[in-house]
Design a protein that fits this description.
mainly alpha; flat
Length: about 110
């Protein structure tokens, strides 16, 4: 089974290689699944072993700021401000799709008559 994750490099306090992240994710998944009872403790070794070369993910091409939709910020891949970030997002539909339906609620009689 192959699982692919996309994690921003900036999420880590210290830089990690993709191999380190993959190893840590295999260990964390194994511990979680054993604790939950999904796998037997003796299967942990199979889960935490590094993937064979034929299953390894293909080398990721080097990204450029254009690939990530960044707007000429100081760091590659990061927009210089929030407005530039919002403008870099794709158009996903008409505003009417996201409008809240008009609802006045129910009528309540406030008089005791």
């Amino acid at each position: 089974m192959r699982v692919t994750l996309e994690i921003r490099e900036e999420a880590f306090r210290t830089p990690k290689t993709p191999q380190q992240v993959a190893e840590e994710m295999r260990q964390a998944a194994a511990a979680f699944w054993v604790a939950r009872g999904d796998v037997a403790p003796d299967a942990v070794k199979d889960i935490t072993l590094a993937a064979p070369a034929e299953l390894a993910a293909p080398a990721e091409k080097e990204r450029t700021p254009d690939d990530t939709g960044a707007a000429s910020g100081t760091e590659p891949g990061h927009p210089r401000d929030f407005k530039a970030f919002l403008l870099s997002m794709p158009d996903v539909g008409d505003d009417s799709l996201f409008e809240r339906a008009l609802d006045y609620g129910r009528e309540v009689d406030l008089c005791d008559t």
